[in-house]
Amino acid sequence: MVGDYGYREVFDPASFSENGRASVFTAVGGAAGAGGFWNLGPGARRTWTGSTRRARLLVYSTGLVRQPGLRITNNAGTVQRDVVSSDVPVTNGYSWCYFDRLPKDPAGASKIELFVGGQHALSAGGPAQGTFPVAIEFDGKVTPVAPVTTGNHLVLIADSIPVGGNAVIESQLGFAGLMRRPVALGGYNGRVTLVGHGYAMIRDDMNGAPAQAAFAAFINSLGPTKIGVGRIVNDWLAGGGTAAATQAMLAGFLNALSSTASAAVPVILQSPWLTGVREGTGASGDNMDAYRAAIANCVTGGSAGVTKTGVTHLVGKTVHTTADIAPDGIHLLGLGGHPKAQTAWQAVA
Fold first, then answer.
1. In this structure, how many other beta carbons lie within 10 angstroms of the beta carbon of residue 260?
2. Sheet holding 110-115, edge to edge
3. What letter does residue 332 receive in the DSSP assignment?
4. Beta-strand (E) ranges in the chain?
5. Distance separating alpha carbons of residues 267 and 348, to the nearest angstrom
6. Which of the two residues, 127 and 25, has the higher pLDDT score?
7. Contact, 241 vs 294, CB < 8 A?
8. What are the beta bridge partners of residue 155?
9. This protein's superkingdom (predicted)?
10. Cα 185 to the chain's mean position, in Å?
């Protein structure tokens, strides 16, 4: 399609890879909910090849604004730039975000990637909100690339930490975004799909047998070769349930996976990273170590009664020091915490 810049693409969620939302998202914001862009989860990736100096991105922001970013990589996958738009989107409405002076490969061989930005609920149990891409225009010659559907595929059940909380560009410089870098630059050899958003809890998707079965079916529908669980901190923080109740919900979900085609897919349970000064009693009356123990109990054959095979534990508490933790005592710092988390996950995924 021709736009003011010469090339325009109105987004279809089916053209994105690593989209962990699909059709399960309930739109926030009224009339705009009819747009397919509502069904794009954090970190979903759209790719083009070609060369361009300028681009502009039409977005719709809800009650939470995230400045969009693009990633430009040369054809060899050895030089990469992550750039943010020169504009901050408006809240609760449409706006254009501009990218000027993009690095242009004379041979026209650059890879241009758009990642859907971080999304977060504004309160426990609330819907995901953020800045949703609607359409993009380039002033150069670009060719869209079909989504990758083969190879290694980590589906990571996430909260704000995997989504990239506290990184300069959440979708690109949070640890999941770092994993999406080219292999030559230290990235993961495969796809990384995030399922979830900031403030998400185990309770949101795994509370009771019907929810556990439905969520297991959805995770299976994404075609994982490995499944990760990087979510439990908000159950402690916001009162999603006691450690014992949260353990039971997680165990029920893991056993529900045994009734899907992902029954033999390995699952990695990551217990919470070190959380700085915030290790004490949470809203449901248990401390953080009790939730760490709940994760450890959910491995295959553990005391939680998980019968699904191939469930293992990534011990999170020993990966970081307090110097890697943000001032809020929960999130990771972009320059130290997220790279260490990337290394830990890539060692097991």
1. 15
2. 80-84, 69-73, 110-115, 45-51, 141-144
3. B
4. 7-10, 45-51, 55-61, 69-73, 80-84, 93-99, 110-115, 131-138, 141-144, 153-158, 191-196, 226-230, 267-270, 311-314
5. 10
6. 127
7. no
8. 193, 227
9. Bacteria
10. 20
Residue 1: pLDDT over 70: no
Residue 152 has pLDDT above 50, yes or no: yes
Asked if residues 67 and 97 have their Cβ atoms less than 8 Å apart, the reply is yes
Query: pLDDT by residue (tens digit) across 295-327?
Result: 999 999 999 999 999 999 999 999 999 999 998
Of 291 and 1, more confident: 291
For tokens 């070609």, what's the residue?
A: 50
CA dihedral angle for residue 329, residue 330, residue 335, residue 340, rounded to 10 degrees: 120
Which tens digits make up the pLDDT trace of 188-247?
999 999 999 999 999 999 999 999 999 999 999 999 999 999 999 999 999 999 999 999
**Distance in angstroms (rounded) separating the CA atoms of residues 280 and 287:** 5
Half-sphere exposure of 245 (CA within 13 A, CB side): 15
Which domains are seen in the chain, by residue range?
7-144 (2.60.120), 153-348 (3.40.50.1110)
Distance between CA atoms of 218 and 227, rounded to whole angstroms? 12
Contact partners, residue 30, CB within 8 Å, separation at least 6: none
Q: Of 67, 82, 230, give the one whose Cα is nearest residue 161.
A: 230
Q: Is the pLDDT reported for residue 34 higher than 60?
A: no
CA dihedral 17, 23, 29, 33 (to 10 degrees): 90
Radius of gyration for the alpha carbons in the chain, expressed in angstroms and rounded: 20
Closest CA to 253 of 299, 306, 295, 292: 306
How far apart CA 322 and CA 317 sit, in angstroms, is 10
**Residue 78, burial from CB neighbour count under 10 angstroms (0-12, 13-18, 19+):** exposed
What pTM does this model have? 0.94
Give the strand order in the sheet containing 191-196: 191-196, 153-158, 226-230, 267-270, 311-314
Do the Cβ atoms of 20 and 195 come closer than 8 Å?
yes
